[in-house]
């Protein structure tokens, strides 16, 4: 699930584009503060890395990671401070601090580098093991 899609145009800017491995497509949020992405995994996973690629100028200065097991409330895992660049960014130290076993992961983009609060994500990958 995502917080919003630009102009509600899911065909062109929908959430599926974060996972299609295409350089031509992306998820583009609508404007507004605190955009987010929630991932519900089909089974419990031990998360080890988060890969994210923003469009420069439409990234987040602060990302808050929250997670939980099935039937539980989300709890804060960590804060990430991505760079405002087009490159793939890999974060894994936050997950190695403690064993992070989840059924759900929420990434909140607290403050966008875009004046209108839009976020553009070309690629999002969560790596781990069952």
Textual characterization of the structure:
The chain has two helices and seven strands. It has helices at 10-13, 93-96; strands spanning 27-28, 35-54, 60-68, 75-80, 89-91, 101-112, 120-129. It is globular, with a radius of gyration of 14 Å. The protein is mainly β. The two termini are 22 Å apart. The model has no long low-confidence stretch (mean pLDDT 91). Strands 1, 2, 3, 4, 5, 6 and 7 form a seven-stranded antiparallel sheet that branches. The longest helix has 4 residues, at 10-13. The protein has one domain (6-129): Galactose-binding domain-like (Jelly Rolls, Sandwich). Helices cover 6% and strands 48% of the residues. Strand 3 (60-68) and strand 4 form a beta hairpin.
Q: Give the mean pLDDT.
A: 91
Main CATH class: Mainly Beta
The number of domains:
1
Gross morphology is: globular
N- and C-termini, Cα separation: 22 Å
What profile does the largest beta sheet have? Answer: 7 strands, antiparallel
Strand-residue proportion: over 45%
- The helix/strand class is mainly beta
Number of strands: 7
How would you spell out the order of helices and strands? HEEEEEHEE
The percent of residues in helical segments reads under 10%
CATH fold category name: Jelly Rolls
**Rg calc:** 14 Å
Protein name: Nuclear receptor 2C2-associated protein
Keywords: Nucleus, Receptor
InterPro entries: Galactose-bd-like_sf
Subcellular location: Nucleus
């Amino acid at each position: 699930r995502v917080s919003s899609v630009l102009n509600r145009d899911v065909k062109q800017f929908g959430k599926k584009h974060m996972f299609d491995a295409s350089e031509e497509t992306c998820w583009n949020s609508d404007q507004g503060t605190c955009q987010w992405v929630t991932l519900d995994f089909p089974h419990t996973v031990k998360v080890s890395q988060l890969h994210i690629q923003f469009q420069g100028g439409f990234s987040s200065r602060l990302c808050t990671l929250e997670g939980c097991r099935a039937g539980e409330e989300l709890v804060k895992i960590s804060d990430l401070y991505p760079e405002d660049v087009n490159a793939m960014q890999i974060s894994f130290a936050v997950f190695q601090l403690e064993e992070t076993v989840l059924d759900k992961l929420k990434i909140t983009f607290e403050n966008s580098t875009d004046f209108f609060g839009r976020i553009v994500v070309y690629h999002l990958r969560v790596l781990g093991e069952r």
